Amino acid sequence: MVKILCKSSKTFLIVLVITLIWLHTYLSGILGTENSVDKSPRADDDKIPGAAPAVVDETGKNGNTGGGSEHGRLGTPAFINLPEPRPLSAEEIEEITKEMTFENEMQRIYNVEKFGPVNEGTYVLVIQVHSRVEYLSLLIESLSRVQNIENSLLVFSHDLYVPQLNEAIRNIDFTRVMQIFYPYSIQLHPTSFPGQSPDDCPRDISPEKAQQTKCRNADHPDVYGHYREARYTQTKHHWWWKANFVFGKIVTLRNYTGVVAFIEEDHYVAPDFLWVLDLMETLMVQNLCHGCNLLALGTYLKTWNIKVANSRGVVTNWISSKHNMGMAFNRTMWNEISRCAPTFCEYDDYNWDWSLLQVAYTCLHQPMTVFYAKAPRIFHIGDCGMHYKQKKCNPHTAAKAIDAGVKTHHALLFPDKLTVEVRHGKNMRLKKGNGGWGDIRDKQLCLSFSKDEKYQF
Ligand SMILES: *[C@@H]1O[C@H](CO)[C@@H](O)[C@H](O)[C@H]1NC(C)=O
Ligand SMILES: *[C@@H]1O[C@H](CO)[C@@H](O)[C@H](O)[C@H]1NC(C)=O
């Protein structure tokens, strides 16, 4: 059930002393998350809770301007020079829809001949992919350097179908790979729900005006009086669909009882990611984490203080904006969560993590209790959230800073064991949600994923 890693003692020279700070700089009110409860409505603040703090190389040296020179490592396909997704013709949409349905049913696992079939000891990592291919290529590079990665199954869940990207993913050769495709994407529904339809109410029209013009969803503004915008709803839909698919539809995982870790395309992992995941899961299964039911391999920090925290884990109440990175849970927990589908799907918040928090506060039988690694083994290098075009993003700089830190502190990675420290955090007062999810069609579509019904357009 729990994977046994073979520990070689030489890795465990635990050095100490002096806090070395190599990651710093943090934008975003996300860090002071305690007050994010009172987060202003979407109108004033489009930021996704949990969007990243920036990571800056403290040396200030930024040699790599992102030319992709680090690509092409063993097992890492080149993701550069992929074409921008373009609008598709009706024929292409039909073709891709067929292809995608086929792939979701086939559930091909690549590299099984090399690494053997998936079994109870396999690590399952699910990666939600949208369009940030440059980040994704860095994530994959970092995954290729994770110890024991050959003992995993990477499930890439896409909401864009890009043949060249698919090919690049299928060329990953350092572990097993599967691709699944979110079928209700905007790409495949460019002019109708779940995409934006011409007779939808514009976001900013007033509900009174909407009634007069009789635009389609006039009766369903969000809690702030705004109408849906397709591109803001897709991420939550995709997240929910993917979790349902992974636990409910993937045949190979039908009997799998281990945790599934959820990663996003702009994350970056440390080489002992699976090692630490394994330690945490072992503690959870042995009931040694004070009733934890969620694991998180990271949290947002100002500094990566591995010298004092390399082997420390913290148990606390789950807070969406702090513990949404590298989250892992098992089927037992999923069954609890999915029982709360109506809460998740009807809560007027377009963020999956805030919706999950609502589930935790208003529906679950036990609190959501997270056990997280105090020195993160996963980082958010996407310092510009998906809504932000204006900020300079250099994923390569962030990745290099992390690599440098990992190199310097290699002896501190792979701790023998994790300590478990309990911290009682304050629950956040949830008010009405961040909006963006008032449309009844969104609620129904979301619910259809749990009911295993085909959504009727
Ligand atoms: C799951 O377990 C059942 C009962 O042991 C077995 O019949 C079935 O083949 C297993 N399924 C998979 C996909 O391993
Ligand atoms: C699944 O997770 C729960 C916590 O949510 C834990 O108590 C249980 O032992 C885990 N089950 C398995 C089979 O690992």
Structure description:
With 457 residues, the protein is α/β, with parallel strands linked by helices. It has one domain (88-451): Spore Coat Polysaccharide Biosynthesis Protein SpsA, Chain A. 30% of the residues lie in helices and 12% in strands. The chain has 13 helices and 13 strands. It has helices spanning 90-106, 112-115, 133-144, 163-170, 207-213, 230-248, 273-285, 306-309, 331-339, 341-346, 352-362, 395-408, 440-451; strands at 23-24, 56-57, 123-129, 152-158, 176-181, 260-264, 267-269, 294-296, 312-317, 327-329, 369-373, 378-380, 419-422. The strands form three sheets. A nine-stranded mixed beta sheet has the order 5-4-3-6-10-8-11-9-13, with helices on both faces. The chain has a two-stranded antiparallel ribbon with strand order 1-2. Helix 6 runs parallel beside helix 13 (440-451). The longest helix has 19 residues, at 230-248. It is globular and about 65 Å long. One 2-acetamido-2-deoxy-beta-D-glucopyranose binds at residues 1, 257, 284-285, 293, 330, 332-333. Pfam families: MGAT2. Substrate binds at residues 128-132, 159, 234-238. It is found in: Golgi apparatus membrane.
What characteristics describe this protein?
457 residues, alpha/beta, Spore Coat Polysaccharide Biosynthesis Protein SpsA, Chain A, binds 2-acetamido-2-deoxy-beta-D-glucopyranose
